Amino acid sequence: MNTLIARRPLLRQKLATVTAALTFANAMHIQSIPMWVGSSNNYAYLVKDDKTNDAVIIDPANPSEVTPVLQKAIKSGEINLTAIVNTHHHWDHAGGNKKLQGELGLDKLPIIGGKDCEGVTRTPGHGESFKIGEGIAVKALHTPCHTQDSICWFMQDGDQKVVFTGDTLFISGCGKFFEGNAEEMHSALNKTLAALPDDTVVFPGHEYTKSNVKFAASVLQNEAIQKLQAFAENNKETQGKFTIGDEKVCYS
């Protein structure tokens, strides 16, 4: 991947102690929903403001795996689903939008994402913000390269900060340049995402860490990469366990 410039290294000393689930002390709750496990290893993410139960679902590409989770949460009153949010238009991220709307009986559910996403109803500009419920501030970060409509979503609730990166940034890797070039990916990684606070937790669109770090270790050898490789070998899921600061330390 293109090197993220090191600023204030925040690599956690004991990566194995990072908890798998993220239920924040403020009002932001994130649930990972694995899809196509064993093949493309995608993630959809349900993000809820616990104060209001307002929620969005990010990249629900495979309704057969996502719809039951949402139906249960809606029926129990745990969530009020307010939007589908997409990171980019590829079918394995945005291809389930309309089917999900139909299965939930929410044909008018807003779809927020890039201009080429299936059924999109709103495309925020770069840096434009909106809220989930009362507490979660969401900012659109345009990161064209993997696709020209790629958007990373930075969310903050109090001191908790996360970013949903789709196929732009993975843990220890980046997406293919399907619609862009190296200059665009360099800007996405080293300018747009590197400008986020170092303690911003990364939620990528796929579970690719094990293969990514295997390649990284073949060309770079430092303590941070060795720790990351050990963690990936012993944990099937790595989403939500590493930060922008960790990426900078690994590739500084």
TrEMBL record:
Its cofactor is Zn(2+). One of its GO terms (molecular function) is hydroxyacylglutathione hydrolase activity. Pathway: Secondary metabolite metabolism; methylglyoxal degradation; (R)-lactate from methylglyoxal: step 2/2. SUPFAM superfamilies: Metallo-hydrolase/oxidoreductase. Transmembrane segments: none annotated. It catalyses: an S-(2-hydroxyacyl)glutathione + H2O = a 2-hydroxy carboxylate + glutathione + H(+). Its EC number is 3.1.2.6. The keyword Ribonucleoprotein does not apply. InterPro entries: Clx_II_MBL, HAGH_C, Metallo-B-lactamas, RibonucZ/Hydroxyglut_hydro. It is an enzyme of class 3 (hydrolase). SMART domains: Lactamase_B. Residues 41-206 form the Metallo-beta-lactamase domain. Gene3D superfamilies: Ribonuclease Z/Hydroxyacylglutathione hydrolase-like. Keywords: Hydrolase, Metal-binding, Zinc. Belongs to the metallo-beta-lactamase superfamily. Glyoxalase II family. This is hydroxyacylglutathione hydrolase.
